[in-house]
């Protein structure tokens, strides 16, 4: 395995559990990384949080399942879920085909963003982190 | 940890598949993906390396009476070049393994059992063979075994086989040649489709050329039909849709063939066999629990070990569960008390704290019967190969009935 095989967009923040976060003006958008979708392979089921749910940084946000495996999704930041990607319910395969765009999972209104961003990785560090897993 | 065992085809799996550990073997879980491979078998044809399974030859003047003593089905009913599904039971009637016996000729049988039970079964056969005039020989590493499964399996295999396969009926066998290699072919499988199991004779792990020759020959013969090499992932989802048991999950030494719905492989009128007394007693008293199929009515994927709840009470647990790639719903098998095992019984499966509605259905969830007919939740319905949308709609009407 080489890290070249995985898409790691520059502008995003990353967690050790392979979620990404994109910071917008009013909220953060999160999803799972290319590495996560490739490890799971053929995602067939997604369980999303309800809008209004309070989430903690590194706290459970939902689950994704492939035919063989179950994987929890953790929130990259604390806050309130303001929108979820309902399209994933009927088309979970979008998580495989486009994990960073159409495959976004939830939008979160942050509570303590500046502090919590320090605990996330940038693209360069996430790349090194993936290399360390091999 | 000791090194993982490998089959003849290991270098192919390593180059083309995603490897996993299964029963001490390094095996492919998938090549392109479980769903693609699963659908190739439902729609056309797939090929599986199943050489990790245990195989032994039982020979000698008392081979038949010996096998009749250690298995539950009636071996004496087998004609040469016929196969039968059966079980080994312990003295309490619990299933030690499920297996297929093929009669090659009088006094010579090929016995095929699960990879996870290789040592246990071989030891069990050896120990019990002492009182009989038989020879039990482990040939697992000298015969390669492939499954060629799907509606196009016959036409693909026919292109390279010297013998006519069209007249070979289910559970019948023949000898043929593929690429000048001697192969034994049985019309058997573990997918719910028509298909064959192909045994490549005289090819050791150290000298796997014949195994490769036959494997590659089948792959090229099937190319125009879109043949896919399939891994253990698809093997599991296919057998589960077909309502077939996986040893270690749906069958254990604590379950009897009667509870598992396999009474058709228990022949009480054939003379003594291991477990007979216990099984007769259970038959007389009636079984208390039964293997059932459960289909989820809501979104969710049942997994082994999850609780099955009826009327607020935990009454069983999932023994096998998956997302059905064909029907696109969660399906599971579980043991439930007999009074809750009836078709239509409402159940809940506890999936990570969430109670998900399901219903007891007749098995198999899906199995092809003929070109135009399939079983769907145990009912015969018409469904040509590939007409899956109609089948899924049909499933919804069954549920609302």
Explain what you see.
Chain A is built from five helices and nine strands; from the N terminus they run βββαβββββααβαα. Chain A is of the alpha+beta class. Chain A has a single domain (13-113), classed as OB fold (Dihydrolipoamide Acetyltransferase, E2P), CATH 2.40.50. Chain A has a six-stranded antiparallel beta sheet with strand order 1-2-3-9-8-5. A three-stranded antiparallel beta sheet of chain A has the order 4-6-7. In chain A, a hairpin with a 4-residue loop joins strand 1 and strand 2. In chain A, 44% of the residues are buried. By secondary structure, chain B is an alpha+beta fold. Chain B has three domains: 10-53 and 141-240, Probable tRNA modification gtpase trme, domain 1 (Gyrase A, domain 2, 2-Layer Sandwich); 57-125, Aminomethyltransferase beta-barrel domains (Alpha-Beta Plaits), CATH 3.30.70; 288-400, Aminomethyltransferase beta-barrel domains (Elongation Factor Tu (Ef-tu), domain 3, Beta Barrel). Chain B is 22% helix and 33% strand. Chain B has nine helices and 22 strands. Chain B has helices at 10-16, 34-43, 63-70, 118-129, 153-158, 209-221, 232-241, 276-285, 388-400; strands at 18-22, 25-30, 46-49, 54-59, 82-89, 95-105, 108-113, 135-138, 144-149, 173-178, 181-186, 195-200, 228-230, 289-296, 307-310, 313-323, 330-337, 346-351, 354-361, 366-368, 373-376, 379-382. Chain B has a six-stranded mixed beta sheet with strand order 10-11-12-9-3-13. Chain B has a six-stranded antiparallel β-barrel with strand order 14-17-16-15-18-19. In chain B, helix 2 (34-43) crosses helix 7 (232-241). In chain B, 50% of the residues are buried. The chains are: A alpha+beta (134), B alpha+beta (401). The A-B interface holds A 41-42, 44-45, 63, 65-68, 70, 89 and B 18, 29-30, 33-35, 233, 237, 299-301, 303, 322-323, 325, 352.
């Amino acid at each position: 395995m080489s890290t070249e095989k995985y898409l790691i967009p520059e502008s995003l923040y990353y967690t050790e559990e392979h979620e990404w976060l994109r910071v917008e003006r009013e909220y953060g958008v999160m999803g799972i990384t290319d590495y996560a979708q490739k490890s799971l392979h053929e995602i067939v089921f997604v369980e999303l949080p309800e809008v209004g749910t309070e989430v903690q940084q590194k706290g459970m946000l939902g689950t994704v399942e492939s035919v063989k495996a179950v994987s929890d999704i953790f929130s990259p930041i604390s806050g309130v879920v303001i929108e979820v990607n309902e399209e994933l319910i009927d088309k979970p395969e979008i998580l495989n085909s486009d994990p960073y765009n159409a495959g976004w999972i939830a939008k979160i209104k942050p509570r303590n963003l500046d502090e919590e961003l320090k605990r996330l990785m940038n693209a360069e560090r996430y790349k090194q982190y993936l290399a360390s897993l091999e | 940890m000791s090194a993982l065992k490998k089959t003849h085809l290991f270098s192919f799996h390593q180059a083309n598949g995603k490897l996993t550990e299964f029963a001490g073997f390094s095996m492919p879980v998938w090549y392109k993906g479980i769903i693609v491979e699963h659908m190739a078998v439902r729609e056309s044809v797939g090929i599986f390396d199943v050489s990790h399974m245990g195989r032994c030859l039982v020979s000698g003047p008392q081979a038949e009476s010996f096998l009749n003593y250690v298995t539950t089905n009636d071996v004496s009913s087998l004609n040469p070049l016929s196969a039968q599904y059966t079980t080994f039971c312990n003295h309490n009637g619990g299933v030690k393994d499920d297996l297929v016996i093929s009669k090659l000729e009088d006094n010579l049988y090929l016995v095929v059992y699960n990879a996870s039970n290789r040592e246990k079964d071989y030891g069990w056969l050896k120990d019990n063979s002492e009182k009989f005039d038989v020879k039990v020989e482990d040939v697992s590493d000298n015969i390669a075994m492939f499954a060629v499964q799907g509606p196009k399996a016959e036409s693909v295999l026919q292109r390279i086989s010297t013998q006519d396969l069209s007249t070979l009926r289910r559970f019948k066998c023949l000898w043929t040649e593929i690429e000048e290699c001697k192969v034994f072919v049985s019309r058997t499988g573990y997918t719910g489709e028509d298909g064959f199991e192909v045994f490549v004779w005289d090819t050791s792990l150290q000298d796997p050329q014949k195994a490769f020759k036959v494997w590659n020959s089948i792959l090229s013969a099937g190319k125009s039909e879109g043949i896919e090499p399939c891994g253990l992932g698809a093997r599991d989802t296919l057998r589960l849709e077909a309502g077939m048991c996986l040893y270690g999950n749906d069958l254990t030494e604590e379950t009897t063939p009667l509870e598992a719905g396999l009474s058709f492989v228990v022949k009480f009128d054939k003379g003594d066999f291991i477990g007979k007394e216990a099984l007769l007693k259970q038959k007389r008293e009636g079984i208390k629990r039964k293997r059932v199929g459960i289909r989820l009515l809501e979104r969710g994927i049942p997994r082994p070990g999850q609780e099955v709840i009826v009327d607020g009470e935990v009454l069983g647990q999932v023994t096998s569960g998956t997302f059905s790639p064909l029907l696109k719903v969660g399906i599971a098998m579980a043991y439930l008390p007999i009074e809750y095992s009836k078709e239509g019984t409402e159940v809940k499966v506890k999936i990570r704290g969430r109670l998900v509605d399901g219903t007891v259905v007749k098995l198999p969830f899906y199995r092809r019967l003929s070109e135009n007919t399939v079983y769907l939740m145990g009912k015969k319905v018409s469904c040509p190969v590939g007409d899956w949308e109609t089948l899924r709609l049909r499933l919804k009407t069954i549920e609302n009935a």
